[in-house]
């Protein structure tokens, strides 16, 4: 028997990605799109051991894809990207409409069932914004970033 032995760690340290990566998903204009997008983000973050970002990332994905589904008529594209410096997850949702989302300057009323999407995006994300693609092709991408730590 060797003088040293290997023992499994009792509480492993999380392994955070040390390199940048990106995943893209094309979604049909369907009521199923938000759920499919959430499931995809959940799988990606599990595989990259980014569990601390999981709940916020799923909610942001759901809000961004739901807005694209409700307010546009064409296909929807989700892009999930990681930047290791600084440790940032970016969720981008592209749709065919050039119209930017309307942002309410105030907190939504407590019992409203709609109008909370971008409020939640603003509250949960480190940064968020809109990239206009009308000159390159068409449409726009609404994005939100989450920082690790």
UniProtKB/TrEMBL annotation:
Domain spans labelled Histidine kinase/HSP90-like ATPase: 54-143
Signal peptide coordinates: none
A GO molecular-function annotation: ATP binding
Keyword Cytoplasm: no
KW ATP-binding (keyword) present: yes
Sorted UniProt keywords: ATP-binding, Kinase, Nucleotide-binding, Serine/threonine-protein kinase, Transferase
PANTHER family: ANTI-SIGMA-F FACTOR RSBW, ANTI-SIGMA-F FACTOR RSBW-RELATED
Designated name of the protein: ATP-binding protein
Originating species: Streptomyces boncukensis
């Amino acid at each position: 028997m060797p003088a040293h032995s290997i023992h499994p760690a009792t509480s492993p340290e999380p392994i955070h990605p040390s390199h940048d990566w990106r995943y893209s998903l094309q979604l049909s204009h369907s009521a199923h799109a938000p759920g499919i997008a959430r499931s995809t983000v959940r799988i990606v973050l599990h595989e990259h051991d980014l569990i601390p970002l999981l709940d916020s990332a799923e909610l942001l994905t759901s809000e961004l894809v739901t807005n694209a589904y409700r307010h546009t008529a064409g296909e929807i594209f989700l892009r999930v990207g990681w930047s290791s410096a600084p440790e940032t997850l970016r969720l981008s949702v592209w749709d065919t409409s050039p119209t930017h989302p309307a942002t309410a300057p105030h907190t939504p009323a407590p019992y409203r069932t709609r109008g909370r999407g971008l409020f939640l995006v603003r509250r949960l994300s480190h940064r968020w914004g809109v990239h206009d693609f009308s000159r390159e092709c068409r449409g726009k991408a609404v994005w939100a970033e989450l920082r690790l730590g």
